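#data-curation
PF: Archiving a pair of folding outputs for the training set. Convention for this channel: one message per protein, sequence first, structure tokens after, nothing in between. First:
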Amino acid sequence: MQLSISDYCAKNVITLKPTSQIADVIQVLLHKRTDVTCVVDEDEKLIGIVSKYSLFREMLKGTDIRLPISSIITHDVVTLNRNDNFDIARNTLLQHKVAHGIVIDEHRRVHGIVTKSDIITGFLHEKELLVNQLSALIENLEDAVISINTEQQILTFNKKSEKMFNMKKEEVQYQPIQNLFPQLLDHFNETLQQHSPSKPQQVEIGEHILIASFIPIQFQHTISGAMVVLQDITKLETIATELESTKRLQHTLHHALAKNFDAIIITDAEGIITVVNDAFYDLFKITEAETLNQHWTTVIPEITFEQVLAGNRVEGDVRTILKNPCFISQDPIMQDDRLLGTITKVIFRNIDEWKDVFLRLEHLHNELNFYKGELQRITKQDSAFERIIGYNTKMVKIKNEALLAAGGSSTILITGESGTGKELFAEAIHEESRRTGRFIEVNCAAIPADLMESEFFGYTEGAFTGAKKGGKPGKFELAHQGTLFLDEIGDMPLPLQAKLLRVLQEQTFERIGDTVVRDADVRIIAATNKDLKKMVREGTFREDLYYRIDVVNIHIPPVRERIDDLTFLCDYLIKKLNEKMEKNVMGLTSAAVSILQNYDWPGNVRQLENILERAYNLGITKWIEPVHLPDSLIPLPIVQSTRLMSQPEKNHDSWTLETTEKQSIVQALAKANNNRSQAALILGIGRSTLYSKMRKYGLHK
């Protein structure tokens, strides 16, 4: 970095007009103790200078001091621009053999006077700044830098070196290089002898694999030492090995795909085709250039990718492609709940044999579901609603109402916010209904509008282009003598609402493209988190359908309205997460429970499970503490204090296992209105155990 003379010149310059008298100059020079004064015109632009030497000459001549100074002005003045650097200033003064120069701006107005001593001071500051910058650069390089003098003593040891070798600069400075880093000694000696940089060398020091570049340090053509720059490539070596393994794996994968008997299509998350195999080209009769890096809509519009790109698995889709009947299955490729791409398999050879296999598998699947349901009914001791966590008064009342409603055949509407467990109630109602058919679930928000009718009522062979051979049963047909659960019914299009209403009224339906009327012995359970009454008023939901499905209404309260169930929900979810994550977390500390109990839970049980699973990924061992919870759960004024209180190992003995156990007993007794038998049942322990623990904590009084 070069400095300018503007910051180093003397700025208290005396300026006079040409009409000023010689006496004025004498007075000013004597008063200001300066050697030069500048003469400027009416626009303050430089005309020349009057020096004390020119005054001496005039006084020796006996010139009248009352005369104007115009006759003694020196017009040939050495000037410098205020933005000039010190190299330009030095060269200009040397060229004109003067000791000072007038510094002017771009309008030729006087800015100051610079002398040789000012220039020397500027040069010194400039060099000092450069040295400081170079030192800071070396200290903060991402590579380690070590320098030695000719006696092979360490002089420079930057921060990266300290971190890499776990040594302080003070410990190694002026120590012989051979004592601390003998691996570098020969290369240093070679650099000092050859007076030139050496080629980068690979060296190993401890656990580090390094690329070392050795550079001689010269001063006035004399070698004063040498420097080495060390780049750590340990991780790069590991990555290179992994990349080589990945390349081999990729080659194996491509070879396996190429020889696969069925057509394989792999896309990225945007639907761009990245990989296909030879069987694909055989089926679609197109070239590689027409396929790879193209969007699926332009290459294979015969196959739809919307559902799989939305993260849903698609199985058993049958299409006709270039007059070939094909069986299609599609899977999303996920990583950490993020869609990376899709893989599609198209079976088009020996399709008739495959069809028999799939029909047999579907039959076995139906039988398996039936026997599983029967086994659950035979072996369970309590109702299916006991699996739903909820001991709050509201929840107990709702579960009893749902159990009573399960024995009837009326349509049931389950309402409640998202994440409250509406689908759990629907499954429990079906189990307790003793209906012999299957429980079929349909998410009305996840099915495209143009596919809804075929999903609900099925279709016959040839009903439309792409209809699979033999037709396909709809959800009503699959749920015959069972239960059809219509989740998110508020998202059902109006045209389909009319058809659904007709089926509910007539108890019959027809497949698309068919004339055969089929019976619909199906019980409907609908669920929504929307205000259907408001939608009826707005005309987005049919009023007659609303009153048809709202025969029995079950409203699931949000978590914030049954906050006393929170600890039981946490216990259940922690057991579930322990199995899933293969951990042995004991539970939550009292401080963490308090934070959860003071949150309003807009996402309900689903949000609670996500937050607990997040805590599992933060390195917890036994207890979930406030530090493992998102800051969004904690009111801002108490975030810091809560974080401090959440550390049991820092003398906060109040948050121990005993405290948590004691609080759980107190909560259970309060919930049971001090009925100890009921409290023991809630805690899942025997009465004698409860009495023992109450005596332990002084609660028996």
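PF: Second:
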Amino acid sequence: MLRTRDLIRFTTFALAILLFVLSVILLTWSAWWWIGVIIFGGAALSGVRDLVQKRHSVLRNYPVLGQIRFFFETIRPEIRQYLIEGDNEEEPFSREERSIVYQRAKGEEAARPFGTKQKIYDPGYQWLTHSVNPVHNDNPNMRVVIGGPDCKQPYSASLYNISAMSFGSLSANAISALNRGAKAGDFAHDTGEGGISRYHKAGGGDLIWEIGSGYFGCRSEDGSFNAEKFAESAALDQVKMIEIKLSQGAKPGHGGILPGKKVSEEIAEARGVRVGQDCISPAGHSAFTTPVELCEFIAHLRELAKGKPVGLKMCLGHRREFMCMVKAMLQTGIKPDFIVVDGKEGGTGAAPLEFANHIGMPLTEGLTFVHNTLRGAGVRDDIKLGASGKLIHAFDIARAFALGADWANSARGFMFSIGCIQAQVCHTNHCPVGVTTQDPLRQRALVVTDKAKRVENFHRNTMKALVEMAGAAGLSDPRTFLPHHFMQRDAAGEMVTGDTVWPYKPEGFLLRGEEVGHGYLMRWNRADASSFSPMGEYV
């Protein structure tokens, strides 16, 4: 049923039709009304074309009105800045950054004339050092094998995959497009904590099943973990890895609730709840409360999943708590197959402003600490590291590899590839391009077959750019980037090397009791495998 808000979207189109009909009637009075017939008839025909075309989501949801938007986007950049963009410093990504994603998704050249638009002399500016002897590499489909000593079914993953976004927060069409694109491009799609939906299954793409504190898809009636339901879904061939979400970058330490009125039959099916029932994600897990219990839960899931890789996802908070986990790994001999470090810059459709802006560690610092702690404990070689948090361009991904990552995930980059325009109304159910809405009429704007191809294109072209960037640095594999390949300006405007800013700590230094600075050893000595750290003390 059309609602008032929906009718407003079609007002311009309806007005064009009305004025066209009126102009035809008034032709009996004056031949001058041929002008109106031509103008308004053209607008009406354009609106019809907007509704039936499958390339632009905005036009399908906003016939005629969307054409006006695109008209202003063709105006010179200097004028467009004031007419459309304004001075909006809160936008997570600039229009220029998004346009690169759109071009790669469409398979277009993402080149830019007239040199860099970065402020290269400002503090914090970063760049990659290149070689006079570059390497040519024709293999953009590089893989990383994920699975530690206890893993019986290791997974060969792409170096770039779709980060966690749940069905419910994303529309059915969005999930379908992402998963079909992942299938076509041979890379993985993280389900988010909303469970495995029918749209994930229909797409056929490789899945990383994320298990959050609500245990959606593997929960009992009381919300606790259900081993039998977990084993059933984990046995699906599409499910390649299991990811225990401890926290996410946008709102670490914060739970969530999907009101019952939004829980449709499809969402209830994926999450294992009743239609109309509130979906509650507690702030913390109920299946474990100590570091040792966390390790035992990892082993339990790996056994239930018949040896598939099981890992953790977290935005780093208290650093000592992570060291407690590592000590528990050493004590129990149980290690996750992988850890995904999520930066606090990661996004979500709904997070309290204070959490989004001020809680959680940024990816650079979090990934550096996790990587060095695992090196210090002598377990880095057994655990693969993933990185997520605004990694949409090849430079961002390359720098994550230099900081210790084995692969990278992106949510927003792939959202842009299926048409997200950052309207920032994700929480209202009124997404103008059908990406973050459960409204069937608005979802119609997102044509799955077209957008799935763009997902595939974006992945392929981003990987191609990453491989080319590695070649420019004289490397045959982007995973061999190291901190010294990067430089940045410090607060005084002087350039400093990456290994000065993000140094790799010595292997085994924590086991040997060596103090290497930044409080590593002090926190390690205070970490306890049997309990997490006291709040606020030596974090």
